[in-house]
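I am still getting used to backbone structure tokens and would like to learn alongside you. Label the sequence line and the structure token line clearly, so we can match residues to local backbone shapes. Go ahead whenever you are ready, and we will take it from there:
>
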Amino acid sequence: MIPKSTSVFSGRPERASEVHRTKLPPFPFAKVNLNPLFSHTTMSKRPGQDSAALIKRQRLADEEVNAQELVVAAPEAGSNKGALIQMVKRTSGLQAPIMCLRGHGAEVLDLAFSPDGDTLASASADKTILLWRVYGECQNYGALRLGKGAPTSIAFTSSSTIVAGCTDHTLFLFDLKTGEAVRRFRGHKGIVNSVDVQRGGLGRGLIASASDDGTVRVWSEEAKEEIEVVELGYPITAVKWSEDGQSLFIGGLDNDIHVFSLTSHAISYTLRSHQDTVTSLALSPNNSQLLSCAMDSTLHLWSVQPFAPTINTTNPTLHPRLVRSFYGAPAGFEQLLRKASFSRHPTSEGQSGTMVAAGGADRALTVWDTMTGEIRYKLPGHTGTVISTAWSPKEPILASGGVEGVIYLGEVDAV
């Protein structure tokens, strides 16, 4: 039995431990600055509990919160006149162009927006998942404590439920309306590095988890035991569902990405190009392309449509499904499981997935154009490696988390 936890969802929500509201940089044509991250193994020891629970965050006095409001001002370029506040066109409903969220006591290992875009969940090595309201003052209205293990990967199954893979070899499924852990999945023999939820197709409602034990396991929200086990024999670091729910994209320590068919129970094809461990996988909004991030400091964009060319027209020596590569976000020596992500908001032309983002050891969040491969933004702010990133599904809002435990939530251009 999983002990019930105390809910803090009734009554007035608590404020975040610390929230900074910051104006955009005052210089003409300046880009919005924000950063992402995901860290894997290094975790400070903290008092643990055997059960999952929802706990309250300490409320700050109003005067302390107000004291944290910042207004950025600077002299006008080429002028000796006084400081001027730069007015920049806003592109989102955030209270300020950049919000700094503080509350975690260790690395931010993963980030996820709810399907409606109103909630941001952050998983940390401090063994908690914090829940933040995206709009208004970005209030931290609750925290899910997972007991002995730290959450390494999280995914919303709906706007009111979230699944977390943990270092104690288990998965938790939380009901966010009550704050209760409604299910705990046991079966892995190693750290769970990645989880993903299938929201459509034949696998609707199924959960996939990848572990250091060399397996990918498929679970149903309604059952405690796995319904499928894929054994590869080496640590698996990333897993992603295909659109139709019939296949899994799997990345691990062999540097390759295997596409496993759940109907034939065999590998359909393999994507090879990375020179080091694959750390994350993301599917484009139109489900036609797969983004992979690896410890070789590169990101690759792959075509995963049913029919692909037999030869790469750009470079015949490359894999025929390799569309483009992105450079400029160094992995560093820490060997962290950095997470890359696709933009999901619709542009003025109705397109989505026009940008990808990943953090790096250079303490910056890098954003690329998916059509050209060029860097569009190099966003500073974090004081350590940026591990996790997540895009809002409805606005050009990008979240990032770093090894220092800080989360940045900010807006970028909508194009």
About this structure: The first strand starts at residue 18 and ends at 22. DSSP finds one helix and 32 strands in the chain.
